[in-house]
Amino acid sequence: MLETERLILRNWRPEDRRPFAAMNADPTVMDFPGPLGRRESDAEIDDFLRRWRVDGYCFAAIERREDGAFLGMAGIARCDMDLPFCPCVEIGWRLARAHWGRGYATEAARGWLDHGFATLGLDEIVAFTDPGNRRSLAVMERLGMRRDTGRDFEHPALPAGHALRPHVLYSARRDGGAAG
Ligand SMILES: CC(C)(COP(=O)(O)OP(=O)(O)OC[C@H]1O[C@@H](n2cnc3c(N)ncnc32)[C@H](O)[C@@H]1OP(=O)(O)O)[C@@H](O)C(=O)NCCC(=O)NCCS
Predict the structure, then answer these.
(1) Whose CA is nearest to atom 6 of ligand 1?
(2) Domain assignments of the chain as residue spans, ordered by start
(3) Which pLDDT band holds residue 15 (cuts at 50, 70, 90)?
(4) I need a labelling partner for 143 at 20 to 30 A (CA). Which of 36, 91, 101, 105 fits?
(5) How far is the CA of 139 from the centre of ligand 1 (A)?
(6) Helix, coil or strand: residue 95
(7) What pLDDT, in 10s, does the model give residues 20-39?
(8) Element (H, E) at 106
(9) Which is the closest atom of ligand 1 to the Cα of 104?
(10) What is the per-residue pLDDT for 32?
(11) Is 165 exposed, middle or buried (0-12, 13-18, 19+ CB in 10 A)?
(12) Which atom of ligand 1 approaches the CA of 100 most closely?
């Protein structure tokens, strides 16, 4: 479990499943890969729990310290897609719509970057999204991550020609040096 100024970043609990599913059913939150049903949402949590057991980290729950509210998820995860820059460790975030605009995603991500570099000793953590995801790109920029155009890619989970298939990659390094 990690703590930041306003947040607790922790492993998943049974009571998170309902608000996680509500967030994942919201099409404004889930334009990629699209809104999830309850079963798919629960399967994501099952996968996160498995990754926590195997790797010691995963995309984790975000709880607000002040009142215990479930805000969404953020975390780091091993990424093994069939792409030249894999395996790597990626950082990701997703907040329920009611909690956008308060800096929670950036604060949670900073906590995870610090943990990944200072505690886990990772050399690099990457983030990627489709170039139209302005809010996610803004989180990467606020974190000081650097765009690495040489590692932009086509997301293998989407068919050729899909509007969201092209992805841009940002990098953060433990030594703070240039990407790549
Ligand atoms: C991506 C996502 C998590 C970003 O959420 P967000 O609320 O825009 O990002 P943050 O939580 O960092 O908040 C930043 C905003 O809060 C404001 N803010 C308020 N208080 C703040 C504080 N204490 N610290 C930092 N920012 C603060 C910032 O000015 C910024 O506002 P702006 O967007 O009007 O410029 C959210 O849009 C989301 O869940 N999208 C759907 C899922 C998704 O796309 N995930 C990424 C897939 S790659």
Answers:
(1) 100
(2) 2-173
(3) very high
(4) 36
(5) 6
(6) strand
(7) 999 999 999 998 778 999 99
(8) helix 104-114
(9) 11
(10) 76
(11) middle
(12) 7
Listed in order, strand segments (DSSP E) in the chain are 2-3, 7-10, 59-64, 70-79, 88-95, 124-129, 146-147, 153-154, 166-173
Ligand 1 site residues (CB inside 6 A) read: 29, 93-95, 100-106, 129, 133, 135-136, 139
Report how far residue 57's alpha carbon sits from residue 130's, in angstroms, rounded to the nearest whole number.
Answer: 24
Give the span between the Cα atoms of 151 and 78, in whole angstroms: 17
CA distance 52 to 59: 9
- Nearest by Cα to 171 from 134, 140, 139, 129: 140
Q: What is the mean pLDDT of the chain?
A: 95
The CATH superfamily label for domain 2-173 reads Gcn5-related N-acetyltransferase (GNAT) (3.40.630.30)
Q: Are 152 and 138 in contact (CB under 8 A)?
A: no
Q: What is the pLDDT of residues 42-65, one digit of tens each?
A: 999 999 999 999 999 999 999 999
